[in-house]
# Entry
Amino acid sequence: MITNFKKQSRKDDVILLTWVVMIFLIVAWFVTPPGNKFMQICFWGNNTKFFFAKLIGSSKSTEYVFHRNNAVYLARMYPNKHAALKEMDKAIVSLPSYASKQELEALYKDRAEIKLYLGDHKGALSDFMNSGTIGFNDTLKVALLFKQVGNYKQALSYCNSILERESSAYSGFACLADIYQSVGRPDIALNIWNLAIDRNKNNPRPYVDRALVKKSMGDLSGYDADIQIARDFSPSISTEESLIKDTLYPKVLNLSIR
# Structure
């Protein structure tokens, strides 16, 4: 005779209910913010690592790195800039007094990149200027940020410095042309693209950019001609791509975790 049927049934019900609750919690976690669950797990891992570092008394020298990494995770997880920038502020404040000037400047540069990613152009410019020498790869960013705050003289200076380093640099011509377009001088922008093409006739991108300037000036036949030349070089080239837009409104935060 079976004597433990009800007991076994009760146990099975508890197990089933536990699984239902677990599945519900997992689904709820996946559908609630933030959308980037991998970054959220990394964020939890960073905080757990720092918790144990504090337990063994080794957190002081690495506290600024902890806050800096938290800022990167938070910027990638949430569109709200305050949480990430609050962590970057903590990173700068907690930098040990014996740390080098270069380390402090590196934190300012990281904060500049986060501010740029989150759309704070004025704040990004300020931090870039506090980050020491502006590297070649950041010159276009700084030039365009000066343009965004209305300082066209400084913007042009940084644009020109790109071409001084590399006379056929596409980014330098794009920088200059964008500034002159911004101040209502498409005629000068057109001459800039003429020079860019003269220096590198095999790059299809300047033909597209020159075509767009011609279109803005009402020269539709010139637009069609330049687009055709660009497509002769690269049939799949897009008229929607923009180095300027991608620089000012980056879709990816290119900061590694320390």
Observations:
- DSSP finds 13 helices and no strands in the chain.
- The mean pLDDT is 88.
- The two ends are 66 Å apart (CA to CA).
- The longest helix spans residues 5-31.
